[in-house]
């Protein structure tokens, strides 16, 4: 059975499903694809990274779950599920995507600034404190930005969910601004990545 078939078989047709309920199915079905990184109880956690500022009071203490690719796939499943007659509710239950176009938008527009400007000249691994913090701040700021956009357009979460703001707004704006600032249109930070995060 393919991973996608497994995901779909876990979702009963006809039952309304909150969008956030898709993510655990995706994480479980595709968990084996992640390269060895952060583990808990022998399970690869995927796009989850340690950070000294992360709270928690159990096994999650000190960890920041970002799950960019898994959430992207969860967002991508919403429309096909709706076509199949499965009602998907509370689309804002998924978070913003912690990726370099969204995060780059906040650095390139001056919303976020580096404490040490020289850091922009160095390469950083995806598990570095700077990159984890940048990605976590991106997710938090996307929620705040979404509220501002909705207020200006006089729309609510139902009519303008975060998914639409991401695709038609922050992702596109981040890409366009990156091209203005850098010839290659890449991120404002130099990231060493294997393609499973960014």
What does this structure look like?
43% of the residues lie in helices and 10% in strands. Helix 1 (3-9) runs antiparallel to helix 2 and helix 4 (100-108) packs across helix 5 (129-153). 29% of the residues are buried. The chain is mainly alpha-helical and 198 residues long. The chain has helices at 3-9, 22-30, 68-83, 100-108, 129-153, 162-181; strands at 17-18, 39-40, 43-44, 48-50, 63-65, 88-89, 123-125, 190-192. A two-stranded parallel ribbon has the order 1-6.
Properties at a glance:
43% helix, 10% strand, 8 strands, two-stranded parallel sheet, mainly alpha, 198 residues, 2 domains, 6 helices
Mean pLDDT: 87
The radius of gyration over CA amounts to 18 Å
- Sheet-strand content, in percent, reads 5-15%
Global outline: globular
Unreliable residue runs: none
Order of helices and strands: HEHEEEEHEHEHHE
Distance N to C terminus: 28 Å
Tally of structural domains: 2
Helix content: 40-55%
Largest sheet: 2 strands, parallel
| Number of E-state strands | 8
Helix count equals 6
How do the strands line up in the largest sheet? 1-6
Overall structural class, as computed from helix and strand content, comes to mainly alpha
């Amino acid at each position: 059975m393919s991973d996608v078939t497994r995901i779909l078989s876990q979702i009963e047709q006809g039952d309304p499903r909150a969008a956030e309920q898709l993510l655990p199915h995706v994480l479980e079905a595709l968990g084996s694809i992640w390269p060895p990184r952060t583990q808990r109880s022998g399970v690869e956690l995927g796009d989850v990274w340690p950070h000294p500022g992360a709270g928690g009071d159990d096994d999650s203490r000190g960890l920041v779950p970002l799950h960019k690719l898994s959430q992207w796939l969860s967002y991508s499943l919403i429309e096909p599920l709706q076509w199949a007659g499965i009602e998907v509710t509370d689309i804002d239950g998924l978070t913003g995507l912690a990726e370099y176009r969204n995060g780059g938008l906040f650095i390139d527009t001056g919303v976020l600034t580096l404490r040490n400007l020289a850091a922009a000249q160095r390469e950083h691994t995806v598990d570095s404190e700077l990159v984890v913090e940048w990605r976590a701040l991106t997710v938090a700021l996307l929620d705040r930005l979404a509220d501002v956009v909705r207020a200006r357009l006089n729309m609510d979460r139902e009519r303008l969910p975060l998914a639409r703001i991401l695709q038609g707004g922050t992702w596109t704006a981040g890409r366009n601004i990156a091209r203005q600032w850098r010839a290659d249109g890449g991120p404002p930070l130099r990231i060493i990545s294997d393609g499973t995060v960014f």
